[in-house]
Amino acid sequence: MNLGTRKVLDRSFTSLGIGSIVVMALALLVVITPIVYNGLGAVFFQGTIEHRKLLQDEFHRGDKAQLEREIEESGRYRMEAYRMLGEFEAELEGMDPVKARQYRMQLGPVKTALQGLLGPIPGEEPGILTRFRYGQTRWEKAEEKLHELLYESKWDYSDPNVMAKEYFVRRAESFEGTSLLPLFSYVEQNAEKMLLPRFTAYWGFLFDKSVDAHIFGGIWPEIQGTFFLAIGAMLFAFPLGVVAAIYFTEYAKDNLFTSMLRSANSTLAGVPSIVFGLFGLAFFINTLKVSESKSVLAGALTLAIMILPTIIRAAEEAILSVPKTYKEASLGLGSTKWNTIVTVILPAALPGIITGGVISLGRAAGETAPIIFTAAVSVGSAIGLADVLSSPTPALSWNIYNLASEHEMASEIRHVQYGMVLALVSIVLLLNLSAVLLRARITKKLKG
């Protein structure tokens, strides 16, 4: 191969590598951008007066005097809408029974949409749940509810060869010639004056508890629970992983027993996480009875077993990367084998061990399957350190799945789901960044 060919191949390989990096970066950008955009929407949005009332009632936060003035201001416009509704209901009493029954059937969805937009109608008993005591707290959701009030959804089945098509008709057409007709145009024109939206930076999303199954409030219990589970897993797995790595590299003989242990460790690294969850339920809860049911302790032990093979392998590789001359020099100076391991080999291998540990910590924070059976609950308050031995906890990974797949109002709280995803991704990225910085700092310190 001549020099020119080698240069062409070298440039081609370099270009291919750079192109691969660019493609991966673009793919990551495509994935991350909607998460960041929609996740930030959980904190920054156009909050209505209903949001400010909720904060005052549930968390005693905000300017109470200003809120009372806003309630009075918006109430003037709301009362006119309620007056029209009341007049129409009185009109129904003197109407032909058949016609009145038809109007009442059409009035039901109108009242439901109006209650969803503005909150309970005066004179009517609100529901027990918090969601029935407030209107829309976010302006973009209020616009959706306003559309629901103004338009009725219908389906066109006229063509049997194609799927039914959805179309909308104005509800006002159903109330032509009645006293309710002006209500629709009035609410459409004065919706902003009724809800008083303004830009809101709701940092409480990260530090408040959830209210009414995550329809309102924040995600602090989930963030705290994620940290408890991940750090608890590391407290169990990290020491055991490092000790096991020391055994494999410094003490274990090359025999069948050691080969079986290495094979078992490699096999465990590839076991699906759901298997670890079932194992944790059967072994830690049902057999060892570390807790009566789900608990942070059971979840942390299960996650520890799951990340242990990764920590062992990372620590083993870090120890093997230490030059043999370090060990030989220490032993030549009369140091014992254990003292050499503690004072020479482990400090030199520490950057690699720490990196493997922090990456495993990030994996523990993001796992869902192992904690479904052992630790996680859908809703709950933040727990204290004294309760980790016996109490379950909400966690980001489980609640993201639960809100997306099982929540009855999943489409109404997409911002909460994206906010949780962004929080979890940020935690994992911060852990990885801390691993890089810590490794660099330790390496620099070891070099003097």
Relevant terms:
448 residues, two-stranded antiparallel ribbon, two-stranded antiparallel sheet, 6 strands, single chain, 16 helices, mainly alpha, MetI-like fold, 68% helix
Q: Could you please describe the fold and organization of this structure?
A:
The protein has 448 residues and is mainly α. It folds into two domains: 48-198, no CATH class; 220-447, Orthogonal Bundle (MetI-like fold), CATH 1.10.3720. The protein contains 16 helices and six strands. The chain has helices at 3-40, 49-59, 64-93, 97-118, 139-150, 181-195, 204-207, 220-251, 256-269, 273-287, 296-320, 324-332, 337-366, 369-372, 396-405, 414-447, and strands at residues 44-47, 151-156, 165-170, 198-201, 210-211, 216-217. A two-stranded antiparallel ribbon has the order 1-4. It has a two-stranded antiparallel ribbon with strand order 2-3. The chain has a two-stranded antiparallel sheet with strand order 5-6. A hairpin with an 8-residue loop joins strand 2 and strand 3 (165-170). The protein is elongated and about 105 Å long. The two termini are 45 Å apart. The relative contact order is 0.10.
